Amino acid sequence: MINKDYILRLAEQIGYELSILIGLRKRNRFQDELIAIDNLLLKYTGLTSRFINSLADELLLQSLSPLGKLNVDSALWIASMLKEEGAAYEGLANSNESYYRYTKSLYLLLELLFQEHVGSDSPLYNEAEELIHKLADYALPAHIQQKLFRYYEQRGMYAQAENFLFDLLEQHPSPETLQAGQEFYQRLQKKSTTDLQLGDFSHEEVQEGLDQLQRFR
């Protein structure tokens, strides 16, 4: 688990740089902001925006995970800068580039939250929820939906996790997703009634979910 104080210090450092970027955006200096973001990425991660955005999400994650361990500093800097880059492109009325940055930022942030077992009171969850809200009206690719399915289970929001599970099964059916669904309900079977109720779920719905999985076989 990431040390809470460490995250707060890193978030404070990133927040200082973001305040300058947001100032540029508020003055409609979007191109200047994009140049500043690129400079910050190079300074703190050694990577340019162009290179980061040229990589598929999975390849970017691999490049940030030497020996299989995610580089938290670089991942958080990149996720934060991509989110701000998305906001800049939104200001330029370029929804395609904005969407691309937001999804890439969300992908990295969800992976960081999962791998590092971040505490439930971390401000990183607010960042993730803000990105989820920004993308609410868009169709998300399967690999992002998979991360969201896992994210909502991790947060104990079982009803929302189930929604993403069945969206995946309807839109991107695969034996792997079916197996993930089976294991999801098996984990929920072991939860107490109170735990399930807190996640807007019940043991009856667990059984109903298992029954529904059968039609995808």
From TrEMBL:
Q: Which domain of life is it from?
A: Bacteria
List, alphabetically, the InterPro entries matched.
Answer: DUF6483
Protein known as: Bacterial transcriptional activator domain-containing protein
Report the source organism.
Dictyobacter aurantiacus
Top-down, what is the taxonomic lineage of the species of origin?
Answer: Bacteria, Bacillati, Chloroflexota, Ktedonobacteria, Ktedonobacterales
